[in-house]
Design brief:
By secondary structure, the protein is mainly alpha-helical. The chain is built from five helices and no strands. About 90% of the residues lie in helices and about 0% in strands.
Length: about 140
């Protein structure tokens, strides 16, 4: 029963924070920047709740007697792989979001600048690929 509650709480927290951010932006009480910051705070809180709940469940005496320390390591390594992929994907998206419009503008002014502009866009994509490779390495070590 505890496992179901621990699965429902983070989902409810995320859904509630998304609804709260949507309502505050549409009613005009908050800016988009404040809504994004509240979403980042909600993500951090849910991450802490999920990490602590996983450690709490596996630290129980009956779980320790069954030898589930390997499953705790597996769970934490999966969280690490997910964070490596997710955060690098967000960073790559931010980089491409800034570089792509500049590349399009440079190409529209001078068509010869296409190759140079494409390199800068690809560098932003590379950040996400490196995060994916790191997560593959983490998963393969488990």
């Amino acid at each position: 029963m505890l496992e179901y509650i621990l699965m429902i709480v983070p989902v409810a927290f995320v859904v509630g924070s998304i609804y709260y951010a949507y309502k505050t932006v549409t009613t005009g009480r908050r800016t988009r920047k404040r809504a994004v910051l509240s979403q980042i705070g909600a993500f951090a809180a849910v991450s802490v709740i999920c990490l602590v709940s996983a450690m709490t469940v596996f630290a129980a005496p009956e779980a320790a007697a069954e030898g589930t320390k390997d499953s705790l390591n597996l769970g934490i390594s999966m969280i690490a792989a997910a964070l490596a992929t997710g955060i690098s994907g967000i960073g790559g998206g931010i980089a491409v979001g800034g570089a792509a419009p500049a590349a399009i503008g440079a190409t529209s002014e001078d068509p010869k600048a296409f190759g140079k502009a494409l390199i800068f866009v690809a560098l932003g994509e590379g950040v996400a690929l490196y995060g994916l490779l790191v997560s593959i390495l983490i998963i393969s070590k488990v």
